[in-house]
Here is the input.
Amino acid sequence: MAKKLMKGCEAIGEAAIQAGCRLFFGYPITPQNEIPEYLSGRLPQVGGTFVQAESEVAAVNMLYGAAGAGCRCFTSSSSPGISLMMEGMSYIAASELPVVFVNIMRAGPGLGGILPSQADYFQATKGGGHGDYRVLVLAPSTVQEAADLTMQAFELADKYRNPVMILGDGLIGQMMEPVEFKTRIEPADLPEKPWATTGARGRSPNIINSLYLKPEELEQHNWDLVAKYREMAGEVRHELYRCDDDLDVLVVAYGTVARIARTSIDALREKGVKVGLFRPVTLYPYPTEALVTTAERAGKLLVAELSTGQMVEDVRAALQGRRPVEFFGRAGGMVMSAEELADQVEKLAAVTA
Amino acid sequence: MYNEIIMAGFGGQGVLLIGKLLAYAGMKAGFEVTWMPAYGPEMRGGTCNCTVVLSDRQVGSPISRNPHGAVVLNLQSIDKFEPTVRPGGVLVVNTSLINRAVTRQDLMVVPVAANQIALEAGSAKATNMVALGAFLGATGLVNLALVKDIVAEQFGKRPNIVQVNHACLSKGFEIGQTHASVVAAR
Here is the structure.
């Protein structure tokens, strides 16, 4: 397929179809409405089903059922809608079902606002719902990457039988960029899921459940999940930008802020400031080792986020005091300009020198 | 090459569309491109804008505080964006609806009576095309023929719309080009 100019939201919708997903359950909320809008037209064309549920709570439980029956399925929502889905996500994680969630974050707390924000980092990376569970979290910073990661999210969800979340914001969702779909998977080509509840003809029934009344069994289930999360650690991904030499400042940022940081870094490099970018692509598992290795060549770290400070805690935990870690954040839908971020880096670099 | 352009006007004037056309043409010309609409509450207040970035390397921020160029179709938009354009940048001004002079002395200002020209060409709806044409004529950022091809592709089922849009793009282009050459000769 040739390159097309698409909105991030549309690219995510098309990527799901290219990944062989034929089921969407969701409920409208800005700024991700272009995903259900796109799929409501596109899914019927490919024999799929688009369901606008009566609420997010209903949608997530439809996903629980569809995934349990072995179908590739996904939903998209935005912060308050994702919060409503958290009970169901916990059940899905507990029952070890593959479901892809897309959260096009808006600013919070509460109803908040529709502009770009990264305020749901904690919710996404620390489980989100009740109980000890984790979700694999992928954070695209371009429209092409949003498409690629969405396709991979379905594979990862199946591989680990675990929810996978695409974490973006209104900038990634509303922006248009060229995008190309290189592979196409037909639903018929997807591997079988022998654990799914597909009717027990000729075999003993499969049971999908998250209720364990015996604490010994439930504890074991918890440790089994942890073993799976340890395995998931092999999926860590990150990207470096202009980190070839020793650095005065290493900027750590993901998604929208990472691309703003690229512009800041280009401008600072022209002025001779030694600055580079570490961009985590997986937010859970976090690319801790790679970050520590990169940070060894940097004087200081600056974590930049569209929040009042969330990922910075993971960076500080990774560095364990080995380097000073400063924070710069904007919140409420205010997006930092490249110049504003560059100023912060420059000030920090001056202190280092 | 790194070029950030803001297109701004009333909702309904088609600024998002000409932004998309510019981005699409830029993509076909081999540039890295982004198109970013302002989707915040200001859309409800009657004004509307988008930012297009054309670059020969991967685009970082798709939003701009100081664009290289701006196309402003109404008074609110010139008030908002005139002060932000970089020195030496281009400002296309729709004089049909903007009845004040540009105060900045350090810009290449392209005045164009876009509504009037579009009306004369057959449809006031093509005001945006006159403005886009003027911008392309003044900057030469992407080839006019490329934009015309895309218009033909997008509105192919309605040949009269294609024709009016093409006429408006050409008319605007001439004005932009003439203006740029006058500025260059000075």
In short: Residues 98 and 157 of chain A are 4 Å apart (CA to CA). The interface with chain B takes residues 3, 5, 31, 113-115, 142, 170-171, 174-178, 259-264, 266, 333, 335, 337-339 of chain A (CB under 8 Å).
